[in-house]
Amino acid sequence: MEKEKDKGNVVLKEEDNVGVVQIADDVVAMIATLAATEVEGVTAMGNKLSMKKTKGVRVDVLEGNVTVCIAVMIEYGYNIPATCQKVQTKVKAAIENMTGLTCTDVNIRIAGVKVKKA
Predict the structure, then answer these.
(1) Which pLDDT score is estimated for 17?
(2) Which end of the chain is more exposed for a tag (fewer CB within 10 A), N or C?
(3) What is the average per-residue pLDDT within 67-90?
(4) For the chain, how many structural domains are there in total?
(5) How many CA atoms lie within 13 A of 103 on its CB side?
(6) Average of pLDDT values for 89-117?
(7) 34 located within any domain
(8) CATH number of the domain that 105 lies in?
(9) pLDDT band per the 50, 70, 90 thresholds, residue 63
(10) Which residues pair with 70 in a beta bridge?
(11) Average pLDDT for residues 68-83, to the nearest whole number?
(12) 74 with 41: CB under 8 angstroms?
């Protein structure tokens, strides 16, 4: 299977070509967003890395390799390094399982800490 970039889309080409499958960068960003927010302790996505429609996530795809930069809000009381490691693992697995692309980096920036109101 070959992978190439085409104007914000990843084009997957199969050897037995019946057609072309294109995955928009926004779709990969949405997968990353959903996976990150499933992790306990992540309350929201930050908005400092805002790109197009998906706030807090930037996706770069080059030759079938995906690099993701995510800004997240962490709930007060959660261990930041442990929570970030869970986010990295979950985002990497989700992107690779759903798209077939290789996720080489998941970079996380803590945009803030959310404190529960009493």
Answers:
(1) 67
(2) C
(3) 96
(4) 1
(5) 22
(6) 94
(7) yes
(8) 3.30.70.1350
(9) confident
(10) 57, 108
(11) 95
(12) yes
